[in-house]
Amino acid sequence: AVERTLTILKPDCVRKNLIGEVTRRIQEAGFRIVAMKMTRLTKDTAGGFYAVHKERPFFDELVEFMSSGPCVPMILEKENAIKDFREFIGATDPSEAEEGTIRADFADSVGENIIHGSDSVENGKKEAAYFFSEAEVVANKA
Ligand code: CMP
Protein backbone atom coordinates (compact mmCIF):
# COMPACT_ATOMS: atom_id res chain seq x y z
CA ALA A 1 0.00 0.00 0.00
CA VAL A 2 1.05 3.58 -0.52
CA GLU A 3 2.16 4.85 2.90
CA ARG A 4 3.53 8.03 4.41
CA THR A 5 6.48 8.30 6.76
CA LEU A 6 7.75 11.26 8.73
CA THR A 7 11.45 11.92 8.51
CA ILE A 8 13.60 14.55 10.19
CA LEU A 9 16.98 15.64 8.87
CA LYS A 10 18.43 16.15 12.33
CA PRO A 11 20.58 19.07 13.54
CA ASP A 12 23.83 17.16 12.78
CA CYS A 13 22.66 16.68 9.18
CA VAL A 14 22.06 20.43 8.84
CA ARG A 15 25.39 21.32 10.54
CA LYS A 16 27.33 19.02 8.21
CA ASN A 17 25.78 20.71 5.13
CA LEU A 18 24.13 17.43 4.14
CA ILE A 19 20.55 18.66 3.54
CA GLY A 20 21.06 18.56 -0.22
CA GLU A 21 22.87 15.20 -0.41
CA VAL A 22 20.43 13.39 1.88
CA THR A 23 17.39 14.91 0.15
CA ARG A 24 18.83 13.89 -3.23
CA ARG A 25 19.22 10.30 -2.06
CA ILE A 26 15.69 10.29 -0.61
CA GLN A 27 14.26 11.36 -3.98
CA GLU A 28 16.59 9.04 -5.92
CA ALA A 29 15.23 6.12 -3.83
CA GLY A 30 11.69 6.92 -4.98
CA PHE A 31 10.26 8.71 -1.95
CA ARG A 32 8.01 11.64 -2.92
CA ILE A 33 8.24 14.71 -0.67
CA VAL A 34 4.70 15.85 0.16
CA ALA A 35 5.62 18.26 2.98
CA MET A 36 8.90 19.89 4.02
CA LYS A 37 10.09 22.75 6.23
CA MET A 38 13.05 23.97 8.24
CA THR A 39 12.35 24.55 11.92
CA ARG A 40 14.06 24.60 15.28
CA LEU A 41 12.67 22.48 18.08
CA THR A 42 12.68 23.79 21.64
CA LYS A 43 13.41 21.41 24.52
CA ASP A 44 9.64 21.25 25.05
CA THR A 45 8.73 20.42 21.46
CA ALA A 46 11.62 17.93 21.14
CA GLY A 47 10.53 16.28 24.40
CA GLY A 48 6.95 16.11 23.14
CA PHE A 49 8.00 14.49 19.89
CA TYR A 50 10.01 11.83 21.74
CA ALA A 51 7.55 11.46 24.65
CA VAL A 52 7.56 7.64 24.27
CA HIS A 53 11.25 7.67 25.23
CA LYS A 54 10.72 9.79 28.38
CA GLU A 55 11.87 7.07 30.77
CA ARG A 56 14.92 6.06 28.74
CA PRO A 57 18.38 6.93 30.10
CA PHE A 58 19.23 8.80 26.89
CA PHE A 59 16.12 11.03 26.90
CA ASP A 60 17.79 14.23 28.17
CA GLU A 61 20.68 13.84 25.73
CA LEU A 62 18.21 13.23 22.89
CA VAL A 63 16.17 16.36 23.72
CA GLU A 64 19.35 18.44 24.08
CA PHE A 65 20.62 17.28 20.69
CA MET A 66 17.33 17.62 18.82
CA SER A 67 16.93 21.21 20.07
CA SER A 68 20.59 22.13 19.40
CA GLY A 69 19.97 23.63 15.95
CA PRO A 70 17.60 23.71 12.99
CA CYS A 71 16.23 20.50 11.56
CA VAL A 72 14.27 19.63 8.39
CA PRO A 73 11.14 17.51 8.87
CA MET A 74 9.49 16.04 5.77
CA ILE A 75 6.54 13.82 5.01
CA LEU A 76 7.44 11.20 2.39
CA GLU A 77 5.10 9.07 0.34
CA LYS A 78 5.82 5.76 -1.38
CA GLU A 79 4.61 2.19 -1.69
CA ASN A 80 5.71 0.51 1.61
CA ALA A 81 7.24 3.80 2.75
CA ILE A 82 7.64 2.84 6.44
CA LYS A 83 9.69 -0.34 5.98
CA ASP A 84 11.55 0.84 2.88
CA PHE A 85 12.60 4.09 4.53
CA ARG A 86 13.92 2.34 7.63
CA GLU A 87 16.01 0.07 5.39
CA PHE A 88 17.15 3.11 3.42
CA ILE A 89 18.40 5.01 6.49
CA GLY A 90 20.01 1.97 8.21
CA ALA A 91 20.14 0.84 11.84
CA THR A 92 19.81 3.41 14.65
CA ASP A 93 23.41 2.68 15.65
CA PRO A 94 25.52 3.64 12.61
CA SER A 95 28.14 0.99 13.47
CA GLU A 96 25.42 -1.59 12.81
CA ALA A 97 23.97 0.12 9.73
CA GLU A 98 24.35 -1.56 6.36
CA GLU A 99 26.84 -0.19 3.88
CA GLY A 100 25.42 2.48 1.62
CA THR A 101 22.69 3.57 4.04
CA ILE A 102 22.37 7.18 5.18
CA ARG A 103 23.47 6.43 8.74
CA ALA A 104 26.39 4.19 7.71
CA ASP A 105 27.65 6.93 5.40
CA PHE A 106 27.07 10.03 7.54
CA ALA A 107 26.17 9.35 11.20
CA ASP A 108 28.68 9.69 14.06
CA SER A 109 26.88 7.84 16.86
CA VAL A 110 23.62 6.30 18.03
CA GLY A 111 22.63 9.68 19.46
CA GLU A 112 23.76 11.85 16.55
CA ASN A 113 22.49 9.71 13.72
CA ILE A 114 21.57 12.26 11.01
CA ILE A 115 17.99 11.21 10.30
CA HIS A 116 14.73 9.94 11.77
CA GLY A 117 12.14 7.60 10.24
CA SER A 118 8.73 6.61 11.65
CA ASP A 119 8.54 2.99 12.88
CA SER A 120 4.89 2.35 11.94
CA VAL A 121 2.07 3.77 9.81
CA GLU A 122 0.24 4.78 12.99
CA ASN A 123 3.22 6.61 14.49
CA GLY A 124 3.94 8.15 11.09
CA LYS A 125 0.52 9.81 11.15
CA LYS A 126 1.02 11.14 14.68
CA GLU A 127 4.52 12.36 13.92
CA ALA A 128 3.43 14.05 10.67
CA ALA A 129 0.66 15.87 12.54
CA TYR A 130 3.24 17.02 15.12
CA PHE A 131 5.05 19.06 12.45
CA PHE A 132 2.54 19.80 9.70
CA SER A 133 -1.00 21.08 9.33
CA GLU A 134 -3.21 19.52 6.62
CA ALA A 135 -2.74 22.64 4.48
CA GLU A 136 1.04 22.12 4.43
CA VAL A 137 0.75 18.67 2.84
CA VAL A 138 0.65 18.73 -0.94
CA ALA A 139 0.06 16.26 -3.77
CA ASN A 140 3.39 15.37 -5.45
CA LYS A 141 3.46 12.73 -8.16
CA ALA A 142 7.08 13.45 -9.16
P1 CMP B 1 15.22 8.07 16.29
O1 CMP B 1 14.96 6.95 15.33
O2 CMP B 1 15.03 9.45 15.83
O3 CMP B 1 14.31 7.85 17.58
C1 CMP B 1 14.79 7.67 18.89
C2 CMP B 1 16.16 8.21 19.02
O4 CMP B 1 16.78 7.99 20.26
C3 CMP B 1 17.04 7.50 18.03
O5 CMP B 1 16.75 7.96 16.75
C4 CMP B 1 18.43 7.81 18.55
O6 CMP B 1 18.97 8.97 17.97
C5 CMP B 1 18.17 8.04 20.02
N1 CMP B 1 18.82 6.99 20.77
C6 CMP B 1 18.52 5.69 20.77
N2 CMP B 1 19.35 5.02 21.58
C7 CMP B 1 20.20 5.93 22.09
C8 CMP B 1 21.29 5.87 22.98
N3 CMP B 1 21.69 4.70 23.52
N4 CMP B 1 21.94 7.01 23.27
C9 CMP B 1 21.55 8.19 22.74
N5 CMP B 1 20.51 8.31 21.87
C10 CMP B 1 19.86 7.19 21.56
- At the first level of CATH, the class is Alpha Beta
Q: In total, how many beta strands?
A: 4
Query: Strand content of the residues, in percent?
Result: 15-25%
Overall pLDDT level: 97
Per CATH, what is the topology? Answer: Alpha-Beta Plaits
Bound molecules: adenosine-3',5'-cyclic-monophosphate
Please report the number of helical segments.
7
Approximate shape: globular
User: Helix and strand string, N-terminal first?
Assistant: EHHEHHEHHEH
Please give the order of strands in the largest beta sheet: 2-3-1-4
Largest sheet: 4 strands, antiparallel
- Rg, nearest Å: 14 Å
Give me the CATH architecture, please.
Answer: 2-Layer Sandwich
How far from one another are the termini?
Answer: 18 Å
Amount of helix: 25-40%
Total domain count: 1
**Structural class assignment:** alpha+beta
Main location: cytoplasm
Protein name: Nucleoside diphosphate kinase
Pfam family, one: NDK
Catalytic activity: a ribonucleoside 5'-diphosphate + ATP = a ribonucleoside 5'-triphosphate + ADP; a 2'-deoxyribonucleoside 5'-diphosphate + ATP = a 2'-deoxyribonucleoside 5'-triphosphate + ADP
Draw up the topology in text.
Layout: E1 2-9, H1 11-15, H2 19-28, E2 32-36, H3 43-49, H4 59-66, E3 72-79, H5 81-89, H6 102-106, E4 115-117, H7 121-131
Antiparallel strand pairs: 1-3, 1-4, 2-3
Helix pairs in contact: 3-4
The chain binds adenosine-3',5'-cyclic-monophosphate.
